Amino acid sequence: MSSLTTLEAGQAANARNKKRLTAFLFVVPLLVFILITFVAPIASMLWRSVHHPIVAELIPQTLSELQRWDGKSTPDRQTLQTFAVELHKLNAERLSGKLAEEFNRAYTGMSSVVKASARRVGRLSESQLQAEGAETLLKAHKNWEKPQLWFAIQRAGQVYTYDYYLTALDLEIHPEQGIQVREDTQIYVQLYTKTLNMALVITLLCALLGYPLAYYLSGLPENRANLLMVLVLLPFWTSLLVRTTAWIALLQTNGVINSFLLGIGVIGQPYEMLYTSFATVVAMTHILLPFMILPLYSVMRGIDPSYLRAAMSLGAKPLPAFARIYFPMTLPGLSAGALLVFIISVGYYITPALVGGTDGQMISNIIAFHMQRSNNWELAAALGSLLLGLILLLYWVYDRFVGASNIKLG
Amino acid sequence: MADLAGDKAFLQFTNVKKTYDHKSLVVKDFNLDVAKGEFITLLGPSGSGKTTCLMMLAGFEDVTSGEILINGRSVTSIAPYARNIGMVFQQYALFPHMTLRENLAYPLKIRKRPKDEIRAKVDEYLSLVELLDFGNRYPGQLSGGQRQRVALARALIFAPDIVLMDEPLGALDKKLREQMQFEIKRLHEQLGFTVIYVTHDQTEALTMSDRIAVFNNGIVQQCAPPHVLYERPANLFVADFIGESNKLKGVIESVGEDSVQVRLEDGGLVSTLKANCTEVGQPTTVSIRPEKLSFNDRLGGAGNQVMARFVTRHYVGEYIRYHFETADGTELVVKNMNDSSAPQLSAKEEVALAWLPQDSQALDRPVA
Ligand SMILES: Nc1ncnc2c1ncn2[C@@H]1O[C@H](COP(=O)(O)OP(=O)(O)OP(=O)(O)O)[C@@H](O)[C@H]1O
Ligand SMILES: [Mg+2]
Question: Matching InterPro entries, A to Z (chain A) (predicted)?
């Protein structure tokens, strides 16, 4: 083969570039869509979990005064005085409620203290404020003397912070000891563990239930397999809410299952099944089963029956042939299905919210709680980011040990 | 066909029938006796039931009726994995998640052979198919021909009594095919196993087999050694399927001991060997191989003659194909060696073509 001349090479490169440009133009709409609906929200979530300027905007001078503070005793009079002046101003601007909320988040029980103190400082005239602002504050509540409170305020005043991550990991930062495990309430780590456990159980159940079915389907003639596949997919076509409520009807104390078991006399009194993690696991297994079956089925369909036949002709009994030959060949489908089910269930929200009660809550439910009830978006963002990180970490581990290239979705 | 097999055949199919849908028979009445060490080829058009027969023998399909015996013992009483039948699948069926060595070691591991014996055997068979350096590769990293050789080695390594090969060379190019045919023959002679071989390729069947069973519509049309099949086809289907043949229509005029006289449609009378058309007045097809048909002057006026007009000629290399047409439009082909005997003909030139009576047969004529 002779080599290309410069001109020919140039023409080839031009043609290639043109092709690339056309290809790129084809994906532009999707790219924009993904940027807007996926990348941007996630970026904004990550940003929110570390960016918290509100307190710094409300009491800028107090925070700059606090820089001189040794962190061990009550801050000096000048600092308190500055805070009193700023509180007075916030009270006048009706922003003290916002400050109260922020302080309360940093130091439990501060909501009422801030509100009461704001009212008292607000009643002072301009000259009184200059003369006895700090004293009024200290008289209003003894909390204002506590160095721990001021430490918390100082941290809450940081524009860029990792404190929400500490909270999300059940840690807290202490003026002397530094970062340590929070003593009073430890919920999040436990909840993460529980979520992972439940996701694992759901994935295992889906695999145990889905594998034989997919195997059976893959052995049927195409048209019958398609017909049965419709039945597998049927759950997809009914509303998630309807399906979940159906589980409520089945599982509740005087629901179908309990009535039946009572009726045939297997149990003496109804079981509490609804509003437990059992209910969450059962309902979610049902909902996520198709995600396991579909990739498994498509991989199994692609496996030529001659492999098993070859194994048998070589002398393998059916069971060993299955274990050593067939099963490894289905691993790509199994890992794809498992990964799908696991990742979806780790972040699942609606089913645990409806049938899980307090026992069956997962991490998403607490994230939703912080967004909707406690209005702590930063903590919600931190919890969400940790979840994202956790999933990426699991994926990485999976890739290391199984190999992501092994996944086969269809 | 019993001549090679003897009285006690090693492998017997007796009245084997098979249906998949309980409506139509895919294999209609299959009878075959195979002697130990014999190389038998099943040859036939697509869908004629060849694979089905192999599958029944290997135990992957059940027999609808009739019996298959190995050493006089019915196979239905033996589980597929206990039949000791090696099989080379059309699509290789090498286990993709195992290296070549693991693929080859698999049947030996199942048989719980000691480790060093397995290693030695694997080495032996890898070098037998000339792939010793490739042992640690995965099947996906091999070329088609290499995979084929591994499949062959794997089917042989556990010393099976019978080896089934279902179009094992179907995916290879001509050169590799010929090389592998040679390889298979060599191994067969060296190791002495019995082979049931399936192919579409008649040349392959002719060069490799001890006997060939020609299949059509689930029935064995003829089972015979290659030269018999080619020179004395039992019916028109076999004559057509194996090699080429010129077909002249006619009616049986008289019947002798070994030969018959046929009145051709153009009025000429020819003498040919007797085959499956033996009654006076019966419509028949006289079948002549193109290489047996030649220009009249070469036979010096002996034998049968037919007049035909020259149409065209094709240069093939070692020989030249001449195409002719008789008065009633029947096409005739003459293969002539590419030497000084090859004549130059002008268009539409009328020539006499001739052949010897023992080079033709009066075969059946399908009802139109
Ligand atoms: N598993 C099956 N179920 C139903 N019908 C089948 C099955 N396998 C084969 N058949 C039918 O049986 C007939 C014979 O098939 P078989 O595979 O034995 O043909 P073959 O001679 O091997 O053809 P080919 O040369 O194309 O491989 C075909 O008509 C085919 O459609
Ligand atoms: Mg076949």
Answer: MetI-like, MetI-like_sf
- Within chain B, how many helices (H) and strands (E) appear? 10, 20
3-state secondary structure chain A: CCCCCHHHHHHHHHHHHHHHHHHHHHHHHHHHHHHHHHHHHHHHHHHHHHECCHHHHHCHHHHHHHCCCCCCCCCCHHHHHHHHHHHHHHHHCCCHHHHHHHHHHHCCCHHHHHHHHHHHHHHCCHHHHHHHHHHHHHHHCHHHHCHHHHHHHHHHCCCECCHHHHHHCCEEEECCCEEEECCCCCCHHHHHHHHHHHHHHHHHHHHHHHHHHHHHHHHCCHHHHHHHHHHHHHHHHCCHHHHHHHHHHHHCCCCHHHHHHHHCCCCCCCCCCCCCHHHHHHHHHHHHHHHHHHHHHHHHHCCCCHHHHHHHHCCCCHHHHHHHHHHHHHHHHHHHHHHHHHHHHHCCCHHHHHHCCCCCCCHHHHHHHHHHCCCCHHHHHHHHHHHHHHHHHHHHHHHHHCCHHHCCCC
The domains of chain A are located at 1-48, 55-161, 188-406
Domains B8-236 and B245-363 share a fold: no
The answer, yes or no, to whether residue A1 has pLDDT greater than 70, is: no
Interface check for A72 against chain B (CB to CB < 8 A): the answer is no
Q: Is the per-residue pLDDT at B1 higher than 50?
A: no
Q: What is the CATH number of domain A188-406?
A: 1.10.3720.10
Chosen for mutation from B81, B91, B156, B198 (greatest number of chain A CBs closer than 10 Å) is B81
Q: Give A311 to chain B, closest Cα distance, Å.
A: 8
The fold for domain B8-236 equals: Rossmann fold (3.40.50)
What is the value of pTM for the model shown? 0.77
Nearest CA to ligand 1 atom 4: B20
pLDDT for position B133 = 93
B218 alpha carbon – ligand 1 mean position (Å):
10
Mean local confidence (pLDDT), B143-170: 90
The four Cα atoms A347, A350, A352, A357 give a dihedral, to 10 degrees, of: 140
Domain residue ranges of chain B, discontinuous segments joined by +? 8-236, 245-363
Question: The complex's ipTM?
Answer: 0.78
The CATH code of domain B245-363 reads 2.40.50.140
User: What band does B3 get if pLDDT is binned at 50, 70 and 90?
Assistant: very low
